[in-house]
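Revision sheet: structure tokens.
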Amino acid sequence: MSQRQTTETPLVRYTLIAIAVVFMVLFLVLPLLAVFVEALRKGWSVYFSALHEPDTWAAIRLTFITAVIAVPLNLIFGVSAAWAIAKYDFRGKSFLTTLVDLPFSVSPVVAGLIYVLVFGAQGWLGPWLAAHDTKIIFAVPGIILATVFVTFPFIARELIPLMQAQGNDEEQAAIVLGASGWQTFWYVTLPNIKWGLIYGVILCNARAMGEFGAVSVVSGHIRGMTNTMPLHVEILYNEYQSVAAFAVASLLALLALVTLAIKSIAEWRLLREMKALAELSPERPTPLA
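Predicted:
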């Protein structure tokens, strides 16, 4: 029986490649180059002086503080949720899976408004928080809560299909041999999911540092106090300080490029492990199929 021909003609292939390259250059490469060109338009001295502003350093510091707190919290939640969903059957499992996907379907601005409704001065918990001299909205805790909300699906969503593909055989064998739950996780589960975990952490961190919508609602835009880097870029641009705005934006672009490089390495290692798993256990469905 002859094999069905599925290869397109060279003209079609080259046309599709050309269209893809043109779109990438127009919508990805040129805007990225424009950020660095505008940031350096008045020279390196103006560029570094814009970055040395106290408000800029405050925005950079708050951005990293938010990521340092939000990412580990999502790491704990993501691993726990993925382990529960992939390894166990229980009542409410589909509901938990739906909750994991909730931030993907809710606008970040709406998420920020929800936190204002709950923790704001006129919100449900506002009077109690005011009575105890605790401030969440228009303060750092609100920024961290909003960032945690918009980023918590990333790690769980990377680990759930990976753990489902791996099954429970190795964990059950470890328990039969006398390993405790922590030993089973540390020596069996974690080595099997490490590259998927790293991949999810990278995506989570990138979103945490670049989040704008939800953070904009709950921050109050207090200069030097509650402005993250994306919010500081907006303020500088609205004040017609374009060089300073693009200088800060270039830092975000550099972080994005570094994240992309690390993500590519992690994705390559993850694909290798998934292919090896598929070859060892061809009867199991994999997320790559």
